[in-house]
Write a structure and sequence with these properties.
Layout lengths: L1 H33 L4 H20 L9 H25 L5 H8 L2 H12 L6 H19 L10 H20 L1 H6 L2 H15 L1 H9 L8 H28 L2 H6 L3 H12 L7 H19 L6
Helix pairs in contact: 1-11, 1-13, 2-3, 2-9, 2-10, 2-11, 3-7, 3-9, 4-7, 4-13, 4-14, 5-7, 6-7, 6-14
């Protein structure tokens, strides 16, 4: 019963994190449309406050001894799981529609499965191979389009989305041993500290390009959501999920993002559903479905 409760906690944590991420896609697009905060500065604010929150939270949990080797591993995890995916996301969202970004991000579970085959020796069946081919066909179609039919997406934006997905898949697929050794709060306080220091030059440059006094109050509310929910809460939940269920299962919750982003994005008038997006999405999700039908993907 304890094991079942542990697994259920992992699923709930993954569900909560990706629900938050799905809403975050739309809010970040709205911030990008306002053009009031430079993306590098936005990540600097995000990582600095998140690091402070995790350091404050760590005062209420048991201290853990940290080796230099694991500290270096955490730095690598910060680059794969925070710096690269979040910086590419914040720049991609300025030139990519929410639906397009979410569809491309749906390749993350498939890349994670490839990494699981390499690092966890999980077999790659013919269904997995077919699913990867179909999904990547959809992504390639998006890349080959100069825009998404609405003028909101560019080739560079889609490529940045691909880098975002692959980097986060590397984090999910390779960092589980490190995550299982440390409390989520202790892990995140170091990862966000590294992330802030790594992007400090870009953040300072962005500060010089941004008039903070001119930022609308509505954007500051969206920044607050980004920092507290999409950073502090979501990145606390992801390691909780990774400690309890397999990386492939964690990444599969990312399938919620396109649905959430599409519904909220269209509702807010920030996006539209064209036949090219729908066709590309069908290819990506058809590949996802094929992969999920593989027995080796279970668990």
């Amino acid at each position: 019963m304890s094991k079942q409760r542990n697994i259920a906690t992992g699923h709930l944590a993954a569900f909560g994190a990706y629900l938050i991420f799905g809403l975050n896609v739309v809010f970040c697009k709205d911030m990008a449309n306002s053009g009031s905060i430079e993306p590098g500065l936005l990540f600097g604010i995000r990582s600095l406050i998140a690091a402070g929150l995790f350091w404050a939270a760590s005062a209420f949990i048991k201290r853990e001894a940290l080796s230099w080797r694991d500290l270096l591993a955490m730095a690598g995890a910060a680059l794969l799981g925070l710096v690269i995916p979040q910086m590419t996301f914040l720049y991609a969202i300025t030139m990519t529609a929410p639906i397009t970004l979410s569809v491309v991000n749906s390749i993350t579970p498939i890349v994670t499965m490839f990494l699981a085959a390499i690092f966890l020796r999980e077999p790659i069946t013919w269904k997995k191979a077919l699913g990867v081919a179909v999904s990547f066909g959809g992504v390639v179609w998006l890349i080959m389009q100069r825009n998404d039919g609405t003028g909101n997406s560019s080739t560079l934006g889609v490529l940045l989305c691909v880098v975002n997905s692959v980097s986060f898949a590397c984090y999910l697929g390779t960092c589980r041993p490190l995550i299982k050794r440390y409390n989520s709060v202790n892990l995140m306080k170091w990862m966000f500290t590294v992330a802030f220091l790594a992007t400090l030059p870009q953040s300072l440059w962005g500060l010089g390009c941004t008039d903070l006094a001119a930022v609308p109050p509505s954007v500051w509310w969206e920044v607050a959501y980004l920092v507290f929910f999409a950073t502090f809460v979501a990145y606390f939940l992801i390691p909780v999920a990774q400690q309890r269920i397999r990386p492939t299962l964690v990444s599969m919750y990312g399938y919620m993002q396109p649905v959430i982003a599409a519904v909220v994005g269209v509702w807010m008038g920030m996006d539209s559903l064209t036949w090219t997006k729908a066709a590309a999405a069908l290819l990506v999700f058809a590949g996802v479905y094929i992969v999920n039908r593989s027995r080796a993907a279970a668990g």
